[in-house]
Design brief:
Order of helices and strands: HEEEHEEEEH
Strand order of the largest sheet: 1-2-3-7-6-5-4
Shape: globular
Number of domains: 1
Strand content: 25-35%
Largest sheet: 7 strands, antiparallel
Number of helices: 3
Length: 141
């Protein structure tokens, strides 16, 4: 089973478990974010009795450009409750998706998987839009 990761805001790092979602190919991230030399690393982590996968994408210079955390729908429910009123509903991405107010962090669940994605503030180039993040997150689900 392939796993993916999205490191999101600190409040979201409380939980996640292995998911059936797969990692987004480096070439897709390159094209979506207009950066070159993208490579990623994936780490399986265990916290508070839950297992999840964190994927970090970096550009050709080694600068982080995107983080992805993958988990299960039940973990998604924990993520959503952790952000509380700071979460805004988002339509068209998985089911019951939400964005973290004031950031481009987006979380969604679909079937047996859940994912949260955050473009990194160190990202060089054109400003990343919410639409770009939504399209990339769809790839993760």
């Amino acid at each position: 089973m392939k796993t993916k990761h999205v490191a999101v805001l600190f409040a979201l790092s409380v939980a996640a478990q292995l998911a059936s979602a797969g990692e987004i190919p480096d070439s897709v991230v390159e094209k979506a974010l207009s950066v070159t030399g993208v490579k990623h690393t994936s780490k399986t982590r265990n916290q508070q009795g839950m297992t999840f996968s964190d994927v970090t994408y970096v550009d050709g210079g080694g600068n982080p450009v995107l983080s992805l955390r993958l988990g299960t729908p039940s973990q998604y429910d924990l993520w959503k409750s952790a952000v509380g009123a700071a979460g805004e509903p988002v339509a068209g991405v998985g089911s019951d998706a939400f964005a973290y107010k004031g950031a481009l962090t987006l979380c969604a669940k679909s079937g047996k998987s859940a994912a949260c994605m955050t473009p990194m503030p160190t990202l060089k180039g054109p400003k990343v839009t919410a639409v770009q993040v939504q399209e990339l997150l769809k790839q993760a689900l």
